[in-house]
Design goal:
single chain, about 210 residues, alpha+beta
Amino acid sequence: MSDSQRTSTASSDITRRELMQAAAVTGGALLGEQFVPGAISPALAQAAGAATAPLDVSLRINGTEHRLSLDPRTTLLDALREHLHLTGSKKGCGLGQCGACTVLMDGMRVKACLSLAALAQGRDIKTIEGLAQGDELHPLQASFIERDAFQCGYCTSGQIMAGVACISEGHAGSPQEIREWMSGNLCRCGAYDHIVAAIQDAAAVSSSTQEG
């Protein structure tokens, strides 16, 4: 290999590394840019810098508006825990598989670890902290206590929030149906029987309240 070829190869290797670093910052959005030997173009560098510029985000959590300045990559879970100190929603797998971070968004269950905070603007978000009405527990919270469905307690907030959605969606008609619609929430202690019973009890209370 000639000296000029070595120089060209070294220059290309450096640029690839720089390009990959920029792509990591921007979530891969810059990988489509044409590769040109040499330093990263000013436009590419500007795009990489812009990706980390903080965003002003307004989140409606448990009926209260919160204005935050966040990194665009901040998840809803991190916004809740690290910025608003609402630590009831737990960090579990970080992959959306365990359900410990489940919250309600416009009444629908959502894995907060997979949701970007910036995309939750204008949505009505409810966490475990906003479920009770003052000192009066939500029927499912009371049922979890009555049925001893807590076990170690780590997955409890996610289980309760998913259970509330399960009931409101009309999927609490039988133990089998509850298990199917709660399958996205994992209990590390295996308290599934207690959780199913608690959801059945709360569903009965909700049904009788609506009929009354």
